Amino acid sequence: AKFVYDFTEGNKDLKDLLGGKGANLAEMTNLGLPVPPGFIITTEACKVYLDSGSEPAALRAEVSEHLEALEQKMGKKLGQADDPLLVSVRSGAKFSMPGMMDTVLNIGLSDASVSGLAAQAGDERFAWDSYRRLIQMFGKTVLGVDGELFEEALEEAKQAKGVRVDIDLDAKDLQGLVAHFKDIVAKQTGRDFPQEPREQMDLAVRAVFDSWNTDRAKLYRRQERIPGDLGTAVNVCSMVFGNLGPDSGTGVAFTRDPASGQQGVYGDYLQNAQGEDVVAGIRNTVPLADLEQIDKASYDELMQIMETLETHYRDLCDIEFTIERGKLWMLQTRVGKRTAGAAFRIATQLVDQGLIDEAEALQRVNGAQLAQLMFPRFDLGAKSEMIGRGIAASPGAAVGKAVFDSYTAVKWSRSGEKVILIRRETNPDDLNGMIAAEGILTSRGGKTSHAAVVARGMGKTCVCGAEELEVDTKARRMTTNGTVIEEGDVVSIDGSTGKVYAGEVPVVPSPVVEYFEGRMHAGADDADELVKAVHRIMAYADRVRRLRVRANADNAEDAARARRFGAQGIGLCRTEHMFLGERREMVERLILADTETDRDAALSELLPLQKADFIELFESMDGLPVTVRLLDPPLHEFLPDITELSVRVALAEARKDANENDLRLLQAVHKLHESNPMLGLRGVRLGLVIPGLFAMQVRAIAEAAAERKNAKGDPRAEVMIPLVGTVQELEIVREEAEQVIAEVEKAHGVDLKLTLGTMIELPRAALTAGQIAESADFFSFGTNDLTQTVWGFSRDDVEASFFTAYLEKGIFGVSPFETIDKDGVGSLVRNAAAAGRATRPDLKLGVCGEHGGDPESVHFFHEAGLDYVSCSPFRIPVARLEAGRAAA
Ligand code: PEP
Ligand code: MG
């Protein structure tokens, strides 16, 4: 294998082998752009080193060959005493891992060459400062010396001289500092700082290889789901200097605004500085536009290059550049990160410029970005007082009174207050408080902290790890930069930016939601640019997608919104949701009825209510399919709480006035009490043991449909049986249902064309899908329960208990309740779909678990050949977009 590539030998499509940085340096070189010459050591070499503990045998000779070529091109040798070639040695993996791996600059400087550099540059101070930087960087990253020691020595030197900033140290001071740094290296490592340039280079390369496996790099990869075996490439690049005086400098630039997508001049420039100075924020940068005044020739050249890059990459690029004594050099470029809004706008702008087609435009945006654009946001025009900033852990704009414990959060929210739960960090005990709060704010923890994970799971706004905030839960207050927030003071948190404000910041609805709601028209002249872009992209997606998108909706209001958002029917109406609130007791009466008369009474009470619900639903989805699922309550949700009831009865008994009804109820609740309600008397099981229940529901559906038909409507009801594990269950229910439907059809003189299908949400159902299809007109995969039962994860508990640990350990990068587990649960889905269709080729297939609105899962369902996904109304645009992206 070839382990070393000259910049002239690579190209941008070789990121696997050359890393992102190297591949793009090669691409720019071949475009004829001014890139300092250099070469790339491949990720393959790194992999060999990581696997075997030593560099591949051929590497040394290959590096020598490329180094010689480089020296020839530059007309000087690495570390040559009178005119040293200096190089940078930089990491660069396939995926960007900012700041995670090592870089060493100024390789080639030594006691022998420092004066040569001084003479060539005509700048004594510059040479000693470069040498000082080399020993510091090399000592720390290559030799593992504690960086603090160098910092302290630098601080001492400044104090001794009575100055505050580095630039006030002169050549003599820096020369002294170099001696001091060399002492530190010798003392700490037991060896002298290596004077031999090639040895410096080889050690630096090895250090970059090693930095692939530091703890922080490993953690970062797990969190970002970057495979651990890719390895990093190493870029060896001849040094150019931005710190050689006022005609030198360094900067960053974007080919268009990464926040809005607008074309223009965006970036920052710092005169007489090196890249690290910009990052370190030592001096203030000036806007890139000012470069035109400072160095017009370089500015014009840079503008030209940016246009070349954008046309070539057909996308927004970001750039790092250096100007050395009036000569412009490109140090890096890549397709740049951008905000969600800019992604949509740029994609349509590039279509208009003819740079990309519609299919490509769909790949330039994603559902997560669209979801982000749908959250309400703070009115940026309003006055606001920012008091801190943390990690944007879960998007949204939340306003409420500060509370510092979950108990208060629950208590206050019950009395109608909006609260923000503020904690140092959260733990499973905070769950109730998190549910009660508008938003969650913590001063510790990162993107996978408990607060972040749980908040994202609940779709709740969260800012975590806002370290400036001092949270004192005992005193019920937090302080930050002098501002004190007491319990009850209003705070506002922005989960999309991580910003924290004192007081109430006004919230404005998202223009994108206004558009989906039909309150804003993309065609209007004054329509928001973002709305226009979203409108166009959605049209592309709808044109190409194969998957249909339905909604999970239980009432006419949700159904109507879903329809406005583009739903093509209802994929799941959970009828148990129609029995919450006041109607709960009716279900309780039904469950507890022990005589036929009681039961019939309970059922006939429910029938007209159900029917009225369905009529509304069919009306709002007229002409589109509506899948009504028969009752599937975990029983305990419909019965009084066993503990509360026991206490009540015990107290009554103590007072000797226990009432007959409560005693009966307690007895029944005891009898029906389950330790595992999720695996208990639910779904079809309930329908089979409570005579008349499913028949009542089917009758309500059929009569509602008949009435709609007679009113010239177009109802398209589908009856769905939950939690089926075997075809026998389905056969019994089907027989009974068909009888009821026939009766209703006869009575109303209509042909209802009702279909009857089942959920596939238990492993056994998936495994016997071929048999089940004999009795089902359609399948709808219930991936919530399927995930629960395939993994053996209690869906109500695990996300708040051990998932944080699992995410931190990288066992999975995202909860399998959020994104479908393709290998496990997904394989059951694929096989069941195939087996079902083998039995019944026209079997309709859908999914109605939460995964139906998850971007990555939608791609999976597209590939698995399902006919539709069903998700909550707000996720519908996301599902439409991702279905389009999957098909494009
Ligand atoms: C499922 O299990 O995926 C499903 C949609 O049903 P529920 O969430 O109501 O159990
Ligand atoms: Mg289910």
UniProtKB/TrEMBL annotation:
Domain Pyruvate phosphate dikinase AMP/ATP-binding intervals: 16-53, 59-284, 292-341
All copies of domain PEP-utilising enzyme mobile, residue ranges: 417-498
Sequence positions that bind substrate: R574, R629, E761, G782, T783, N784, D785
E.C. no: 2.7.9.1
Binding-site list for Mg(2+): E761, D785
InterPro entries: ATP_grasp_subdomain_1 (IPR013815), PEP-util_enz_mobile_dom (IPR008279), PEP_util_AS (IPR018274), PEP_util_C (IPR000121), Phosphohistidine_dom_sf (IPR036637), PPDK_AMP/ATP-bd (IPR002192), Pyruvate_phosphate_dikinase (IPR010121), Pyrv/PenolPyrv_kinase-like_dom (IPR015813)
Cofactor: Mg(2+)
Record-annotated PEP-utilising enzyme C-terminal domain positions: 532-883
Active-site residue numbers: H450 (tele-phosphohistidine intermediate), C848 (proton donor)
Top-level taxon of the source organism: Bacteria
Main EC class the enzyme belongs to: transferase
Keywords of the record: ATP-binding, Kinase, Magnesium, Metal-binding, Nucleotide-binding, Pyruvate, Transferase
A Gene Ontology molecular function term of the record: kinase activity
Reactions this protein catalyses: pyruvate + phosphate + ATP = phosphoenolpyruvate + AMP + diphosphate + H(+)
Similarity comment text for this entry: Belongs to the PEP-utilizing enzyme family.
NCBIfam families per the UniProt record, alphabetical: PRK05878.1 (NF004531), pyru_phos_dikin (TIGR01828)
Protein name, entry field: Pyruvate, phosphate dikinase
Annotated organism of origin: Streptomyces auratus AGR0001
